Amino acid sequence: MKTHFSMFRHTRLLTAFLATCLNLTTSAQTAKQVLDNTVALFNNNGIEAAFIATSYEGTTPAGEASGTMYMKGNKFKMASTEMTTWFDGQTQWSLLEGSDEVNVTEPSAEEQAAVNPAVLLSAYKQGYNMRMRRSTLRGKPTFVVTLTAKSQRDDMFSMVLLDIEQGTYTPYCIRAKQGDNWLRLVIRSFRTGLSLADDSFVFPSQDYPDVDVIDLR
User: Fold this and answer.
1) Would you kindly state where each structural domain of the chain is located, as residue ranges?
2) What is the C-alpha to C-alpha distance for residues 29 and 45, in angstroms, rounded to an integer?
3) How far apart are CA 212 and CA 52, in angstroms?
4) Closest of 20, 71, 109, 106 to residue 201, by C-alpha
5) Which of 147, 149, 178, 185 has its C-alpha lying 20 to 30 A from 197's C-alpha?
6) CA–CA separation, 134 vs 20, rounded Å?
7) What's the DSSP call for residue 125?
8) Residue 96: what pLDDT?
9) What's the pLDDT at 88?
10) Model pLDDT, residue 153
11) What is the pTM for the complete model shown?
12) Does domain 7-194 have CATH number 2.50.20.10?
């Protein structure tokens, strides 16, 4: 994986190590329940989330972008300062800011995890051990869930940390490590229960008459 900042890595993210854990067996069960409740927010429920994404090479910030993401089930639209991405559940359109070309792809599961928080949040379902502690973030009580990969693979993060509000199960921050590098997604606002049409996750070609479609499928 490239170490420079990329929009395709916005939803895999940064820092901190977990200490003071509960007993692993009991904690793992509790951590799974917390993540189940968080992932349920994304299932067939229109969501709007404002975010700031930062990549780190070691502990040195390598780049930052901010924007807004709209999600429903496995569909999403991400509009940031660098790129706008639409994904309808199968096909993805990516348009760099100021570009006259939009790239069309059909991303793999691993590639989806690079841009879709719902996919990354679901990583706990396979390939990771879980543990959890309680903490405070932005003045509110949170769960800090740590996912540690059971095996080292190039297509997996070795560690993912999630800060989740205790009362609502809203994700506040997602941090992920691959190699020596971290990525962090800070969620500044999170709205659920929105009515989002399916075609809002498809590239609106009529709004971009001068943009060429580059089909890379």
Assistant:
1) 7-194
2) 25
3) 29
4) 71
5) 185
6) 9
7) G
8) 92
9) 93
10) 73
11) 0.75
12) yes
Say what the pLDDT of residue 208 is.
94
Q: Which helix (H) or strand (E) holds 75?
A: strand 75-80
User: For residue 195, what are its two tokens?
Assistant: 């009515």
Least confident among 57-61, 116-120, 136-140, 200-204:
116-120
**Edge to edge, what strands does the sheet with 171-178 contain?**
128-137, 140-149, 159-165, 171-178, 181-194, 46-57, 60-72, 75-80, 83-87, 92-96, 101-105, 212-215
- Chain centre distance of CA 39: 12
Q: How many degrees, rounded to 5, is the angle at CA 141 between CA 136 and CA 142?
A: 80
pLDDT value of position 100: 93
- Give the length of the chain: 217
- The strand pair at 101-105 and 212-215 is best described as parallel
Q: What is the pLDDT of residue 68?
A: 95
Which letter does DSSP use for residue 129 in this model? E
Q: What is the pLDDT averaged over residues 136-159? A: 87
User: Can you give the pLDDT at residue 14?
Assistant: 32
Give the amino acid at 203. Answer: F
